[in-house]
Every structure is written in structure tokens, then in C-alpha cells.
Amino acid sequence: MLSKAVRADAEPAMSAEQHNSARNNHAAATAVAVVAAVPALAPGASPAHPQPVPVAHAQPLSPPLVQDLPDELIQGGWSKCWSRRENRPYFYNRFTKQSLWELPALGQHDVISDPLGLNAAPVGGVPGAPAAGATGASAEDAALRKRRLSEEIGAGVAGAASAVSKRTKSEDVMPVTPVAPVPKGWKTEGGFASPTQKPKPPTLPFPIYWNLEVPTNAVIKERGLFDTFHPHPEVELFRAQLTVRLRHQYQELCQQREGVDAPRESFNRWLLERKVIDKGRDPMLPSDCEPVVSVSMFREILNDIPIRLSRIKYRDDAKKQLFKYAEAAKRMIDNRNASPDSRKIVKWNVEETFNWLRKEPSPSKEDYLDRLDHLRRQCGPHLAEVAKESVEGICAKIFTLSCDYVKRIRDKNLDMLKENKLALPEEAAAVAVAVPPAVDRLVYCFPARLSIPPWPLPRVEMHTENDMTCLRYRGEMVKINQNYFNKLEHLYRLGSTDDPRFEKFLARVWCLLRRYRTMFGVGGSEGAGLHGALPVPVFEALHRHFGVTFECFASPLNCYFRQYCSAFADTDGYFGSRGPILDFNPVSGSFEANPPFGEELMNAMVDHFENLMSSSTEPLSFIVFVPEWREPVTPALLRMEESRFKRRQVLVPAFEHEYRNGAQHVCKGEDLHIRAVHGTAIIFLQNDAGFARWEPTADRLRLLLEAYRVQGRQQQATPSTPSTTAPSSTPSHTASTSTSSPAVESSAGGSAVVSPTTSSAGQGEGSGTATTAAAAEQTENHDETKQPVPAEEPKKEEDKILESIEEWI
């Protein structure tokens, strides 16, 4: 044979001779066979290009081959041929002119999207191995892909049949196969795995911000089930469409009646305020409230009349806003029904403002702001009186539309119950509140359960895009970070009891994500402020030093513990939620409360906590984080400061701490942290038994504040440590993340004010900015006026605390 006449080391594998031979052998289906002539080579000489020589033969020199290739390979241009030179079959592609000894693999590479095979994965995870058939491959690389049979079995021809079955060196690299595009599998370290290979779990892109292994210490009186409907993707999609329509109608009413846009986040705050007093049937939209006119919505619309004032940075901006306000006030008083006195006062002040603008030579930014403030004080009450009836009509109209939409949603739920032949709930028991059980006994808190039988759920499609998991139902897609999707799976395993095989898991996750997306709003960053979370080190300190195991305001997406209260019992109960906090009545336990910043909700929270602590003799502790709003001061903050259950209070200055984004389950890493623009008051509300068990001593307060400071320092030093590097979190109540020395006053029943004196060291990426000298001085003055220290003994104790903090720094 020809292979005996040629030296084994005289030419590389996959050389031009073999390629030409492969082409010619493939075309020799007729009576003429084509053989490549290889002349003898001198040492160091390159092989000459052979010319095909026709050779006639009377009988076929190759055995008949059975084309048993898969359809995918045949469609990709592959066929099985016989090599007379090597006396064994090979595979040839008529599209790419490629020859391979081994059977091509399926789904490795698409020539249309990747013609050079750069993304093809080598076998065995060898990085950088060239794809078979790649242009410019060296002779050595080609030799690894295709070897002569004579090189492996030597000169002996008798063992050729057995040697064919031996593993050749070409098995070290998987050949590249151009076939039709196929869906990509999970990405592995060496590339993309084959469709049959079990995918590896993805790598976590950032630390985990939860600890679901902490058991609860919250004890409650055993309660009944919630009489509300189970979530269904069809109903949830219908609710989302109606809610979006209601938001648009709110915007249109504000523009048509008052000529202003709907205040930002006003609709979300309206939902919070209404649900505090709502006795309706829908878990989100209000339908049974008194009074009908919302106080928060009325106040916010009036605040934007006659124009919305934006934040002023420069002198020209202040001048423009002053002129626009005066012009809008004059136009409004002329076009509305106003009393003669109101019309006279507004017009006189507007004319005075115009004269001041014309005559004042070069006013400063502060002059413009003072003039604008004066004009608002003089004209604001008269403009509000003129617009009062119209604004009340807007609020009443929105509530009426909401009641109509709630009725339509309930009718859809009832129709689905009839379709599935399930029992209909009685009208008297249709209100979504927990029914008290017949037996009154104490148990550890457990997730919310629904009394209405569950219905079958439709199929929800799932796929991944980079590190995001996408769920799609009827064209409506929701996304969630892969880590948070795994978290929901863990919570579902702990909290769900009716779906052990996870057959309804995807549908319920879709309903959960769709519900919160509907509540937040259609804007990209809208509603995120209602869903923030505390930093992980703070949660760890609260659990370690104050026994906290429960969050009063959380959700399955941002919770740290597996036991928490959330806004929705129907969608969140499968993932461990205990239901709304105002319907949750514990008799013992330590709790963290970080409420959304709605005044009505915070007032209701204070009432609820005081009632619980008054009626229980067991240890109860609530550590509350609320914004330090003083101009004007919020009633909830004043009530907690004057409460008989207040034990300690810590003030964290503005811009010295951060929140974790409320949209942390979908946001990017650089958007995970939001700096607090207001101070945060941390208030300890405890009954006598709770104070005896979890007393906020000076040492415990110091350790709690250290948790804030450690976070900022470790973000710079060890950003990959999950337990301590969690970037500063979101709950508006956080301590300084810079390396500061807080001064804590721990007098009995008093408050502790954090007065950081920051240094430039230790401020890593994501930590708060350094406190300015003016801010530090202002905080110190506030501390002196609020907490004087007349005696020397407390001063000595405070010095000891400060010395220990300085040693720690």
C-alpha cells in the first residue's frame, strides 16, 4: 500500500496530501479512483503538492459503507467515507472541506455565528486548544488531531484490525462540528457543556445577604387561616393591568384638573396609607376605607400646586423657579373661583415679586430662595383653598376606580373557582384577615396559610440570561438574580407544605415577582425606597447581642431571616411570610422593625407595638429604625420618644450610612447601595421582661455601632468575604460606615447620639462619605442641648467607653 512507501515522520497529519486524498476519495464513487502521488522527499525538503492520477480498476478497492450518521450530521454536510490509504473509515464535510477520523460531536459549534470555532470547547477542559479545522493550525497541533494508523501500530499490518479499535491521540481534542444552532447549556470552566452533561451551579457574583438557618424565638397565640384566594398568574396579570391603568388615570386627572404631574411615589404612598385602614378583599388595591379622601394624596397634590418645585443648585435655577411660581399663581387665581380677598392678596404679592425681579440689580441665590419662600407663605393658603375641591375630587375618583377594579378582580377569582369546581368562600368570610382558632394556645410563629383550596396553576417558562433567571407567562416576563432565585427555592422548601414536588414553584415565583413589580410601579427606580434592607453586619449584631430573629417589615426578596412579616399573605406565605405585621400578634420575642417611610403606617406600627407590650408579660423587644425627620417632625417619632417603653435611642447622622437597594434582586452590583440623605433614629422599645433579657447596654450598643463601621473597613480590605463584606445595606437606619469614633451616652431611659469624627483611612468603596467638620459640630451641639451631663460619674463611665473604642480603632 501507499502508506508503506511513505515514512511515518515525513509529513504531518492533516497535511495537504491527506486533504486532497480525502476530497478525491470522496469523489471516487464512479469507476475511476483518484490516488495522491507522493514523491520521495529529501531531508529538510517540503512535500510537493501531488497531482491526482487516474487509475482504472475492475472492482472496488473499498468495502461498502453504511451511512448510519445521525440526521443532524447529514444536514450539516457530513458523510462517511473509506480511506484506502489508512484502510479505515473517516468522516468528510462537503461544506467546510473538513476530514475527521472520529465521529463528529453534536452541538459544539455553529459555523454561522462562529465560523472560526473560537467558542468551541475542547475536551477535557484544556483551555486555549485550537478547534479542529481552524485556520492557521500548526503542524504539531494538527498531528494531535489526526494521526496515521501506521504511526501507532508500526510496520505490522497484521494487527491493523485490532489497532483501529485503540484510542488514538485525536481523542484528546473534541472535533468541531458545524451544525444547526442549538440552545446553549450552562457555562462551565472549560466552555459550554454538552446538552447531556449535568450543568454545574453558577458562581455567586456577590456575597449572600441572608441567613435562613436562624430559628425563631417569636411566640404567638395559635391563629387560623387567611380567607383569601391563592395567587394565579392569570389573575395576577389582570391585577397588574388594572393597577397600571389606575396609575395612568391618576396622572391624567392631575394634568387635566390641576395642570401638574402626579407627585412622584404618591401612588405608592397612597397604597400604604389606604391598606392601614382598608377592610377590603384585595391584598393590594383598597376598596373599603374611611375617609374616602386620602390625607397623604391630598397633601402631596396640594404641595405641587401651582407648580412643582425642584431642587435648586444654581442661581439661575432659583430665578427661573421664582418667576414660574409667580406666573402660575397669577394664572391660577384668575381662572378659578376665588374670593375677592384671596384674589387681591395673590395678585398683589405676584406684582410685588415681578417688580423686585425687575429692580433688584444682582440678587444672590439665597435672595431668590428667600423671596420664593415668602411668596409661597403668602399665596399658598389662598391657592390651596381655591384648589381644595378639585383635589378632593381627584382623590375620591381614584378610590372609586380602585373599588371597581377590586370587584372585577374578585369576580375573576370566583370564575376560576367555578371552572376548577372548587368550593366558593362565603361572603362573610371573604375578608382577608386571619380567623382566630377555637383553641387558644401558644406556639412558635409559622408561615401564613390560606383556607381556600388551591387551584391548578399553568405552566411558566424559565430560561437564564447571564446571571438572571427569566420567567415568562403569556408574553409577560419577570426577572430575578440567580442568587435570589436560589434563595426563593430555599424559602419555598421551608415554608410551603402543599407542593413537595415543586410543581407549582415557578408559577408562584412569577406571581410573587409580578405582585411586587406591580406595587413598585412602572418606573425603573420607582418604589425601591419602600423595600430597603439593613446591612448584613447589623443584622448579625442584632441577632448576636439582642436576640433578634424576626423582621417586621420585609419580603421574600429582601429578608435576612426566614421568619418575617410582609405586605401580602397570599403570595409571600409560601416563602415563609407570617402575613402583615398589623395582623401579627406575638406575645414573646425580639424583633427588628424597618418600616416603609409612610407616616400613617408608622403611626399604626407604634399603636400596634404599644398594645402588644402592654398586654404581654413575656419578653418583648422591638428595635425600630425610622428616619430622623424634624422639619416638620413626624408624629410617630415623637410618640416613640415619649413612650414609656422606650429604653434607648441612637441617632445616626445623614450621609454617614447607606441602604441596600430595594430592587436588590434585579439591580446591578454598582447600584446595590444607596446613601441615606437623612439621619436615622434607632429606638429600643421593650417591656420590662424584654428589657431584663435584652437590655441595650453600653457595650451592646457599642458592638452594634461597630457592625456599621466594620462594614466600611472590610469592604476595602476583604471584599470577597460573604459574612462581613455585604455592601452597606438599605434600611434607612444604618450607622456610619466610615472609621469613626461614636460617642454613646447610655443614661437610663435616655438616648445615644452617634457623633462620628471621621478620618480618611478605612473608607472603602461603597462606604459613606466622611463627615464634614460642620456636620460633626452640629451633631455635637445637638448632643449637648439634648443630653447634658451635669454629674462627673456618668462622665467617667463615658470616658471609659470612648477609650475602649479608641483602642479598638
UniProtKB/TrEMBL annotation:
CDD domains named among the record's database cross-references: WW
GO molecular function: mRNA (2'-O-methyladenosine-N6-)-methyltransferase activity; RNA polymerase II C-terminal domain binding
Domain WW: 72-106
Key word Transferase present: yes
Domain of life per record: Eukaryota
Signal peptide, first to last residue: none
Chain coiled-coil ranges: none
GO biological process: methylation
Residues covered by region (Disordered): 1-25, 712-809
Predominant location: nucleus
Top class in the EC scheme: transferase
Any Pfam family hit: WW
Composition skew (Low complexity), residue ranges: 717-778
InterPro entries in the record: HSP70_C_sf, PCIF1-like, PCIF1_WW, WW_dom, WW_dom_sf
Entry keyword set: Methyltransferase, Nucleus, Transferase
One CC-aspect GO term: nucleus
Biased composition (Basic and acidic residues): 1-10, 779-803
Protein localization: Nucleus
EC number assigned by the record: 2.1.1.62
Family: Belongs to the CAPAM family.
Listed name of the protein: mRNA (2'-O-methyladenosine-N(6)-)-methyltransferase
